[in-house]
Amino acid sequence: MKSKKSVSYQGHDSSLYAWNLCAGFPTKRKILPALLFCSLISGTTIVAAIPVDGLSYDSNIINFQQTITGTVSDELGPLPGATVQVKGTSVGVTTDFDGNYSIEADSDAILVVSYLGYATQEVAINGQQTLNVQLQPDATQLEDVVVVGYGTTAKKDVTGAISSVKAEEIENLPVANVEKALQGRMSGVQVVNNGGAPGGETKIRIRGTGTVNNSDPLYVVDGVPTSNINGLNQNNIASLEVLKDASASAIYGTRAANGVVIITTKKGTKGQKPSINLNAYTGFSNVRKTIDVLTAPQLAEIKIERSANDGADADAVWSDPQYLNQTTDWQDEIFETGYTNNADFSVTGAGENSSYLVGFGYYDEQGILSNSFANRLTFQLNTDTQVTDWLKINQNLSISRRKTNSPNTSSSQSGVIASALRFHPGLPVYLADGNYSTTQVSSEFGDINNPLHTINEDNDLRQANTRLLGNIQAEIKLYDGLSFKANFGLDGEISDRKRYYPQILDQTRNRGLSSLEREYSEFYSILQEYFLSYNKLFGDHSVGAVAGYTEQSFENQGFYAQANNINDSESEKILSNGDNDNATEFRSHDGLRSMFARVNYGYKNRYLLTATFRSDESSRFAEGNQRGNFPAFSAGWRISEESFFNVPLIDNLKISGGWGQLGNQNIDRLQYLATLTAGNRYSFGQDGQVQVEGISQSTYANPDVTWETVEMTNFGLETSLFDYRLTFNANYFIKNTEDMLLRLPAIGSQGTATAPFKNAGEVQNKGLELELGWNDQKGDFSYGVSANASFISNKVVSLLENQDYLTSDPFSRTGQELSRTYIGEPIATFYGYKSDGLFQSEAEVNAHALQEGAQPGDVRFQDLNNDGVIDDNDRMIIGSPHPDVTYGLNLDFGYKNFDLTAFFVGVGGVDIFNAEKTVGMNSSFNFNYHAEILDRWTGPGTSNSTPRVTFNDENNNFRTSDLFIESGDYFRLKNLTLGYTLPLDITEKYGIGKLRLYLSGQNVFTITGYSGFDPELGLTNGNLQQNVDTAQFPQSRTYLLGVNLTF
Amino acid sequence: MKNQYKYLVPFVVAICLVQSCDDEILETTPYGQYTSAEFWRNAEDAEAAANAMYQPLRWEDLYGHSENVFDNSSDDLFRAGDHGYETAMENFTFDASNNGFRYGWTAKYEMIARANAVLINVPNIEMDATLKNRILGEAHFIRAFAYWRFSVIYGSVPIVLEQNVIDNNFNIAKSSIEEVRSQVESDLLKAIDYLPESYSGDDIGRASQGTAYGLLAKLYLYEEDFAAAISAGEAIINGPYALAGNYRDNFEVASENNPEMLFAAQGLDGWADVPKTYDAPRPWGGWDFHNPVEDIVNEYETDDPRLGYSILRPGDMIERGGEFGTVEFTADLSQTGYSLTKYWSFNTDDGTINRDHNVPILRAADVYLIVAEAKIRQDGPGAGDSEINIVRNRVGLDPVSNAGMPELIHERRVELFGENQRHQDLMRWDKAGIVDIVSIYGEDRGQFDPPRTFEKPKHYYFPLPQSEIDKSEGILIQNEDY
Question: InterPro entries attached here (chain A) (predicted)?
């Protein structure tokens, strides 16, 4: 200990004056609120802090000083790194590895003992020389620690926008991936479910869709950055933080533009005795809703009317009695009761210097479509070892094996759900001879296959993934608050997709040759990082800094092979059994090399300042364009810490603001090179049997291509009231994406080679995010409410020169364009005609602008440009797939041993384009129709919205129009769980620490006006087409029974 | 605590190592792909690039299906199948956003892009001169062929040549039909210079001098330059391009690459299918497109074997093979009761559809009739008797004498039925005042060939795809009357 100065100042107001202690002499300086900010970064800061020089400060008289020693502990043992401070002074020390401290203080002073995550205690010295303090864990949000890039920080010191999810919120939800569990949990975080197929893909959008390109966030799992978290078991997650604004995420530079999701897996706790946890549940699921379709007699009636309307004779098949009996409800045939089983088993414990967690889990889901399933085996091993008092090593490892199989539901040509809606209801599943019924009997029945045939015979589409994600970290305490960390990570995945396509002779979509294809690929990424952290308290000043170097390589390689003529037996499904086998190998490399730094400064815990900088070099771009620099700044003011702030109701009030730049390099590789690709197969020769391949240009080049830049400004407000029972947080952000990569338009006259990307577009997302919570306890009854809502608006600011909009893939069944992305409008708005009811008479047709082919009973489209002709120029934006608001609402109740949780999610102000109806209601297709077609126009006044039935459909009634725009608003009870924990005195008899049984329901009910299967639809052409209903795999309703057991 | 620093040594060493050798992390090898800078090295590259020019021919967007949809507008075929958009194409009630006008557009420009790439790069490759000439000749032919198809479908289109590729300038205005035809002519003349007269062995099926002469004859006939058409066509008549012994040889897998076959989209089952097997009846594994109508069936003379070689009629017995044995074609197997049978057959070992069939695009018989027509229109009836009679003789029909345009029109219709000629022929003859297409298409021939309104001159050309007009931002102008 160095010598100590003692100063006093009479009659001051500590909130208005501060002592410049660093300079070593007292000065009086008025503080301009909000000019000085304070920040103290991480939990490690405090852990690493060592006894500091300081000043004892007393406002009255200088008293007798003495040295007080003692131990700070919690119920499990000593707490290293706890802060012991003399109240009213800036004198403070932290406890050493054994929880011991030694501090000099006046004999009548009061010690303030604090540690993150524990309730702060004040202990009067009263002349004692030894003071041992036991801290109690404190669950108030304010003391929570949040994990940020390359460190942790106390929630109260955060100046950026970070949302957190705790383990208990996502544990034991019956979902196959972590992303699904996050839906509605946080403001500003939208979860986009691409259908409900077991193991199906889920996307996360943080603060809106920032770009028309890949807008998936970066994930960082225990310090390892990765592009996805497939295979991670949500029951192994301790906490999940979403870094939403630039200040929080800029430390990840060129991968941070779409936000960063930081995941920390569970660890053993120091001093904990070994315990075994078992979580298991089993349940079943059903389809939530089906769509009414015509019966066989109704269908025949409609078809006959259709021909009559077209002045043609109906095909004889419609009066053939064998097809007139209602025989099969195809939706009933394809949907079945699914089931979900999950078992997680983990052991945690700790020795004197180390702790561990070993976890093992198995999840198994059988989907609501026959023969669809997903299962996942996970293994987790995390250890933490304090090797010496200055060296700590920790290691995390998760291994998973996933298998999925699901029939195609995305194709509008052959998707199995669409086929079930369209297959002739008068055909049986099986014919008398045991074969599947088929539409080959008549082209009047359309070009679709028997859906049961597809599900049972043409559905060997298996995929298996084996993933390993792990790292080892060493932390060395160097000197007085300074530590060095090295982090080595490995992210690897083997993906094996094997698809068998049998020969199909008796279905319309036939296949002359059976074939087997296999794609086997290996991905691995190696990470190495070295960084220094410095954290120190200088009296009222806290300084934190982190700076380092990181590099990560990404290698992907594998092969694709295909062979024909392979028998449909498991033992024979081997590529080498086939003919014409061909194979291609692929390989790619990406690399990223970066330097990063962050400085935090805090003054008196009131004024907080953070500055971040990252410099990345990326192999995605040509030499000379590889380096990107990403700065960010933010500041916070904890008004509630000011002495002038005297509002008893308010426990915490903080405002913050920040600005920064981020990058997005998620684009196709090698855009700066024009590439040629082999494989254009053709044949020559006398007998036409000479196989040749051609090589042709597949991409055009843009040597100047570089990353997209996001510039984000954030304003935050954080409050706690009524003894922390009420919390309210609000954030407002403006997120501008600049240099958005756009493909030059694929003009037909260029051919089919892909045009390159060019940095040209701008997109703006603006939004307000609100989070509100209330927790209280009355005797045995405790309850909590938390709600969040996000209001995000999306707008395209500019596109390529001379470009007004981007188009999207046409809906393949009808060839209709559905969505366009216009300047000044949100991404992927629906674009089409405005309808104006139906023509009721010839006179109405004649009175209207010239609409080629229109007859009474056809849709009247509005002449928007008033040129007297209805043509392509009469289209406009007819809807937006972006909700005005997305929200989540969680209600918790606890009474004695019962607990009840109800979790709701919803969206408002969103449109869906029901493309399914443009086929399902469209009599120019030779299919079965939705029952709604019974409301068709059959004469003046019979309908003003469902057009007459016609095969010729010369009016093109089912062109993209507002007739198919529906509100996609929904309010869904996403999860309802009722639990009962057996009384401890009973379970203890059996050596059980905790035994809880629960009943849970997922997607219990949905309030929506939407007429399709499910209002959650996802993306159908990247970000350029969203919320289009193509009869995707719907979300199921699941009920389950579970048990949590701890020994 | 001081001794801890010695543990830093390995980390410092590690960092130094990393820093010194990690430029590899930013390397950007395009594994498995060629870059334009490193391709075009040798004859092998040139040949691979040449092979690629042919490949789009077999796409569904071209001769796999969509290119022949344009002939549904003729009076030979009912579209059948189940592509809704083809209704409007057949009935002349389409607008420019109809899918049918979009499908082949980019595919033909892709053929042009591949030909342009060859024409830009192959001249600089040091390689065998004969092979180099052949490849350049193929490129000129392929480009000519694509523009030829553009000229008959849309009339006037943008002409993308080597310089557009070099300047990366593709969004350009369309050229007139005369300019497009003139581009076809100049490319065909160069192709004739460069290409070998014919091929043997593994190269059969490539464009030859005969392919170029044949197309040139057709171009001149469309331009009504009869002397030039005759002269170009006589290169076929006098060259090694004899008609196949049997008419049906042209549509059988084993014999389709015979000398008569000047150009075809080549298919090879399992390696490179041409999905034109669409046409087969559905219960037999096809999708029942392009049904012949009653009127074409009646057009054939009694005893003309070409009817049986081209069209299945109720009562026809076919060897299907496998478990099916011999099967009977019945009226309910197609919508009109007839089925076009030129582009598919059965694998008789298992009764599946054989996808090995080629789609003939240009046959010597077509050129014989081109020469005959040119001679009749230049010199009057009887001038084309010899060429017409060679075609008739092959199928055992009596010769005609003093044949005029009616006989020629009949012969073309039955000889080339289903080969994507009839609608174009009728429009050509209508423009020349030889037939009245409005009354032919206006005739009521029943459910599958109802009266259709052909508007002149609007329907002489189909509209450019609306999507391309939109993308061009005002540079591409729609055809008149659309």
Answer: Beta-barrel_TonB, Beta-barrel_TonB_sf, CarboxyPept-like_regulatory, Plug_dom, Plug_dom_sf, TonB-dep_OMP_SusC/RagA, TonB-dep_OMP_SusC/RagA_CS, TonB-dep_rcpt-like
Query: Is the pLDDT assigned to residue A267 strictly greater than 80?
Result: yes
Taking the domain A143-265, which CATH number applies? 2.170.130.10
The tokens describing A716, both together, are 């935050």
Note whether residue B53 is domain-resident.
yes
Residues B308 and B379 in one domain: no
Using CA atoms, how far residue A262 sits from A152, A202, A229, A901, in Å, is: 11, 17, 11, 25
Positive or negative, the CA dihedral A425, A430, A436, A439 is negative
Sequential DSSP letters for A696-714 = EE-B---TT---EEEEEEE
- A5-36+48-138 architecture in CATH? Sandwich (2.60)
The verdict on residue B84 lying in a domain is yes
Contacts of A513 in chain B (CB under 8 A): 269-270, 352
pLDDT at A543: 92
What phi and psi, each to the nearest 5 degrees, are found at residue B325? Answer: 65, -135
Chain B interface test: which of A322, A488, A684, A961 (most B C-beta within 10 Å): A684
Q: What CA–CA distances, in Å, run from A506 to A270, A980, B279, B306?
A: 66, 55, 16, 30
Cβ(A794)–Cβ(A1026) under 8 Å?
no
Supply the range of the domain harboring residue B122.
46-265+361-471
How many whole angstroms separate alpha carbon A537 and alpha carbon A93? 9
Q: What is the pLDDT of residues A989-1043, one digit of tens each?
A: 888 888 999 999 999 999 999 999 999 888 888 889 999 999 888 888 999 999 9
Same-domain status, B365 and B348 = no
B202–A684 C-beta distance less than 8 A: yes
* Residue B32 identity: G
List of chain A residues whose C-beta atoms are within 8 Å of the C-beta of residue B31: 557, 586-589
- Does the CB of A809 have a partner CB in chain B at under 8 Å? no
Residue A51's pLDDT is what? Answer: 31
The pLDDT assigned to B10 comes to 60
Under an 8 A CB cutoff, do A591 and B24 touch? yes
The answer to whether residue B13 is domain-embedded is no
Q: Is the dihedral of CA A637, A642, A647, A648 positive or negative?
A: positive
Asked whether residue B111 falls in the same domain as residue B160, the answer is yes
Residues A683, B268: C-beta atoms closer than 8 Å: yes
- Could you say which DSSP state residue A430 is in? B
Q: Which residue ranges does chain A devote to CATH 2.170.130.10?
A: 143-265
d(CA A804, CA B217): 45
Q: What domain count does chain B have?
A: 2
Angle at A635 between CA A630 and CA A636, to 5 degrees: 145
Among B65, B34, B30, residue whose Cα is nearest residue B52: B34
Element (H, E) at A915: helix A915-920
Upper half-sphere CA count for residue B292 (Cβ side, 13 Å)? 28
B203: tokens are 């190269």
pLDDT on residue B3? 55
Is residue B481 a part of any domain in this protein?
no
Buried b (16+ CB within 10 A) or exposed e, A635-665: bbbbbbbbeeeeeeeebbbbbbbbbbbbbbb
| pLDDT tens digit sequence for A499-536 | 999 999 889 888 888 999 999 999 999 999 999 999 88
Q: How near does any CA of chain B get to the CA of A509, in Å?
A: 8
Question: What is the CA angle A743-A558-A471, rounded to 5?
Answer: 90
Closest CA to B351 of B327, B384, B369: B327
Mean pLDDT value of segment B343-356: 89
Of all residues in chain B, the one with the smallest CA distance to A563 is B270
Q: Is the ipTM of this complex over 0.85?
A: yes
Domain closes at, from B314, B330, B354 = B354
Strand B325-328 vs strand B317-321: parallel, antiparallel, or unpaired? antiparallel
Question: Is residue B163 within a helix (H) or strand (E), and if so which, with residue range?
Answer: helix B162-167
